[in-house]
Amino acid sequence: MSKLIEKINQLKKEKNAIILAHSYQRPEIYDVADAIGDSLELCQKAANTNASIIVFCGVHFMAESACLLNPDKKVIIPHIDAGCAMADMVEAEDLKQFKAKHPGAVVVCYVNSSAAVKAESDICCTSANAVKIVRGLEEYEIIFIPDKNLAAYVQNQVPDKKIIPWRGFCPIHHSLTKQYIEEIRGRHPEAKIIAHPECRPEVLALADHITSTTGMIEAARRDPAEEFFILTECGMTERLARELPDKKFYGLCNMCFDMKKNTIESVLKCLQEEKEEVKVDKSIAEKAKKTLDRMLELS
Ligand code: 13P
Ligand code: SF4
């Protein structure tokens, strides 16, 4: 393993490359990452790097966002087919038709979406800033795509707006039911619950903290409790354990297989061959970038 890490670090230097890794990546990828974070942090890093190559260890929409923010840089991904099931639940054409039914509404698009969908939207958001972005908008009616659970959470936090949700969801988070959480919490009754806002509303109602993956670290750090149930993709428990070794984190066996396609071996191959380049069609890139820029300005 240390040989692989050495080779990756050497190549990063030679090629002026950086590795951005999402919180759900395998722990061995954390060891070669220049930044680990949630979608917002990684967007911010991608927008501010001087590197010539960005290796994105995450799923396709994340690498695509890095590419939109850095049109002159090379963005590569270890597995070009690492997608997001939720992002695939909305297509630009369907959104166009939906918009026509709600002519007065502004479109807020969760970053878990394709560049084509972003190009049809007015502003992006992530799980870390969705409430802030929606609260800051002048418009009353807001089409929120694609996650219906995040939309419901935002509606709950910003009751003076009318949120019109899309029907998408993350299969990993949506599979967690209230009944299951009530059952497992009995095993560690002292543990506080930290949940991702992609969970169902009735699951979020059981949570002590609702936040993005990076937000979970801050929430657990500040909370005097020593044990936590983490309701999100299972990789997050490992990240929390590394960041806060004095606390205990209980995760669940719900894995995002697309996130886990990346391995340390495929990161090395990706850097050596630079084959899996992420590109965005020029016809949509400019409009899609605007939705991301608008979000970053307000974050
Ligand atoms: P975060 O932005 O909170 O890291 O979430 C991204 C994601 O895909 C959650 O499933
Ligand atoms: Fe998409 Fe869900 Fe995987 Fe996040 S965990 S990348 S929302 S499928």
Please tally the helical runs, counting DSSP H or I stretches of 4 or more residues: 15
The CATH homologous superfamily of the largest domain is named NadA-like
Provide the residue-averaged pLDDT: 97
CATH-scheme architecture of the largest domain = 3-Layer(aba) Sandwich
Structural class: alpha/beta
Instruction: Please report the distance between the alpha carbons of the first and last residues.
Output: 38 Å
Order of helices and strands: HEHEHEHEHEHEHEHEHHEHEHEHEHH
Low-pLDDT segments: none
How many structural domains are formed by the residues?
Answer: 3
- CATH topology of the largest domain, which one? Rossmann fold
Provide the list of bound ligands, each named once: 1,3-dihydroxyacetonephosphate, iron/sulfur cluster
Q: Note the beta-strand portion.
A: 15-25%
- Give the strand line-up of the largest sheet: 2-1-3-4
Counted beta strands: 12
Helical residue percent band = 40-55%
Which shape, going by the Cα principal axes? globular
For the report, how would you describe the main beta sheet? Answer: 4 strands, parallel
Radius of gyration: 19 Å
CATH class of the largest domain: Alpha Beta
